[in-house]
């Protein structure tokens, strides 16, 4: 009989379809269980209730009732981006760890509110970026840290999908209509929708991970979208790091979804260093490397994840159980740098000018 702790976990707020994916990670974890789910709109929980065999007593519409009755060790939060700080501040007083699905927050101010709320309770705030759980990007990060391409000078990023309403949990395909776009928070400005807020955080947070935590000096961004929509569907952000430039491009409306068929341009990263280059594309089983010794380039197979670290739930529970800090993109410290860049890009698109970062 296992003597390991069984982690009690709740899922609260189903605005982001990744809630289903995260709950699936909990269900598959040998030492974790879903003890409750909560959303003010019961219909949004029906699929999860069925998929994970939950009882009526485990389904709540009032978060206080959910937290008081289940007393979880961790809460997974998937609200609209603009409500991340609100929900963290609601759940923090109950004294559990909190995993928030990307992006970090609607603003740097909100990100700092979230960090403060958990720090006061001595619990972990974890920002889950699904691209952190793509083997190619983890392999690229390891090789960069080992110095295979020297010092990172440029990060080129292009990513997105056909649009957030084209798929649900477990990447099940759906067919959106003009009406669903108008009704969805993803397409509402006051909910912090749009491709820039959805995908730029991925690029600049993992980009910061690749470049060892460096901040850019300034950011210039442009964004555009279909006429009549409140939010963008395409953005390009240029970040200046001294004499070097990096580019981060987000796209709702790729020709295909990268987890099914890589579109062109491919979704992922190309990283240039002083001694070589690495291309690391989403979900691919090899990365491509150039070095001065092998300028023709070669394919390198991706690493397997370490035991207990194949997704955000596994990683977080493994680290917490061992008394180890949350590191890399899931760390609020690193993710905060990404949030600074996102905020600067938003200001740049709104004010149509280059924006300098502080400090």
Describe this structure in words.
With 359 residues, the protein is of the alpha/beta class. The protein folds into two domains: 7-128, Rossmann fold (3-Layer(aba) Sandwich); 133-308 and 338-356, 2-Layer Sandwich (Dihydrodipicolinate Reductase, domain 2), CATH 3.30.360. 30% of the residues lie in helices and 24% in strands. It has ten helices and 15 strands. The protein has a nine-stranded mixed beta sheet. It has a six-stranded parallel beta sheet with strand order 3-2-1-4-5-6, with helices on both faces. A hairpin with a 6-residue loop joins strand 13 and strand 14 (298-301). Helix 8 packs across helix 10. It is globular and about 60 Å long. The mean pLDDT is 94.
Give the topology.
Layout: E1 7-12, H1 18-28, E2 32-38, H2 46-51, E3 59-60, H3 63-70, E4 74-77, H4 84-91, E5 97-101, H5 108-119, E6 125-128, H6 135-145, E7 152-161, H7 178-183, H8 195-210, E8 218-224, E9 234-241, E10 244-252, E11 268-273, E12 276-281, E13 286-291, E14 298-301, H9 312-321, H10 332-351, E15 355-356
Parallel strand pairs: 1-2, 1-4, 2-3, 4-5, 5-6, 7-10
Antiparallel strand pairs: 7-11, 8-9, 8-15, 9-10, 11-12, 12-13, 13-14
